[in-house]
Amino acid sequence: MSHSRLALPSYESVKHLDGKGNYAVSRYYKWPFSFFYQKKFRMIFDLMDGRLYNNLLDYGAGPANMFKAELEKHCYRLVSYDTSSVMNKDWRFSAIICASVLEFMKSPWATLNLLDFMLKPNGHIYIASPMDTRLTQLYFNLIGDKQLRWPHFYIKRLVEDRFIVDEYQEWNGLYFAIRAHKK
Prior knowledge:
Blueprint: H1 11-14, H2 33-48, E1 53-59, H3 68-71, E2 75-81, E3 93-99, H4 108-118, E4 119-130, H5 134-142, H6 152-162, E5 163-171, E6 175-182
Parallel strand pairs: 1-2, 1-3, 3-4
Antiparallel strand pairs: 4-6, 5-6
Helix pairs in contact: 4-6
């Protein structure tokens, strides 16, 4: 398990995107927020366990695409998708990352159906999200984040209904991460 700092784009190159897709881009660079954002992705990378994928979709990357450099270490081809991207109905991926996305979707079930359709038969999907605990509620209040979220137990149940969970991790009541594959 690595504890080194993950590579981020320079703040100067992404500061104009603050508030436009990635919530509070500036907080990726400030303590203590940077620690929590990095921990969420570190959990995903730990679940990837050094795997190298043919192609990887970062679903919900946001316009700043904060962890692009790190994700590129795990694939030959990275596709980043955010709400301004055009979805190609023929896309199929050997791995899909969905980090802090499902909790905001109008229909997480429909999103998981889409991701399942886009996942190749032997592929993996990696999902990470904040947990719905008093600690996370305190954290979101601290950073002024008042967005409504689906609770983690609901997201976990939807993932278990749609995929076979290979590994599940929780971290200090703040985040969970899942590696799963098609049923």
